[in-house]
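2024-03-11 09:14:02 INFO worker-7 job=invfold-0412 stage=load source=structure_tokens
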């Protein structure tokens, strides 16, 4: 994300309504999800996020990433770009009413990130899933807790929303199928890397001997899959030592 993209989103909202933008709920404090916040603060919005987002916001890594993005994404990220904290740090699940609609925020982390939340618009059965869902592509795993991520996906599947807004990709009108794709990919990673760990293979051996054909045509496979597999391999290796 960037402040300019935040301003662009506000412009899209203004095509639909001139009502004030009162609240922004952050799914998690990763740079691509919160760098646009200062545009929303400028129009008076309050920011809500789970308290564990403070860990990311106050970390050395957050400052290092900002410096890197100021270099790589200039002029869209520059010296005026600020890291915006939440106005309200949530400690768990919560609900609120606004504009005659009811909203439910559910903490599902630590999954993709320590502070993951999802939000449901109850009357419309619309779910904002954050990075629980990378629609139609290979997700970015990073240092995610993939076991908890799978539990979060099961929760979303059981909720049976009519529509779902993912953290990456267009909105889904077939949430069950899209959620299942991400779930099945994570299961495959854990099963294949877990078996390799049990067989005492090195990661290079594990990756080379795994059949990736069902995933390799998905967008972001080349960019993300090997790193995803490596991170899950390390998780499974760590788990085997407990």
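2024-03-11 09:14:09 INFO worker-7 stage=emit residues=242
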């Amino acid at each position: 994300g960037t402040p300019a993209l935040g301003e662009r989103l506000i412009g899209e909202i203004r095509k639909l309504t001139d009502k004030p933008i009162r609240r922004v709920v952050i799914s998690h404090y990763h740079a691509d999800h919160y760098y646009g916040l200062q545009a929303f603060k400028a129009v008076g919005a309050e920011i809500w996020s789970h308290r564990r987002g403070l860990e990311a916001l106050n970390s050395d890594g957050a400052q290092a990433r900002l410096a890197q993005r100021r270099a790589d994404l200039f002029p869209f990220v520059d010296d005026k770009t600020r890291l915006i904290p939440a106005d309200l740090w949530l400690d768990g699940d919560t609900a609120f009413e606004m504009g005659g609609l009811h909203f439910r925020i559910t903490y599902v982390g630590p999954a993709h990130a320590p502070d993951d939340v999802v939000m449901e618009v109850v009357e419309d059965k619309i779910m904002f899933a954050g990075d629980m869902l990378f629609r139609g592509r290979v997700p970015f795993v990073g240092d995610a807790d993939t076991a908890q991520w799978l539990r979060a996906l099961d929760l979303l599947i059981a909720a049976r929303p009519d529509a779902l807004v993912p953290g990456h990709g267009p909105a889904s009108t077939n949430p069950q199928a899209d959620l299942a794709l991400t779930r099945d990919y994570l299961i495959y990673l854990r099963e294949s890397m877990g078996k390799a760990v049990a067989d005492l293979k090195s990661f290079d051996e594990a990756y080379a001997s795994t059949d990736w054909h069902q995933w390799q045509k998905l967008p972001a496979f080349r960019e993300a899959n090997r790193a995803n597999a490596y991170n899950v391999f390390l998780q499974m290796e760590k788990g085997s030592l407990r």
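2024-03-11 09:14:09 INFO worker-7 stage=report msg="The longest strand covers residues 126-134."
2024-03-11 09:14:10 INFO worker-7 job finished
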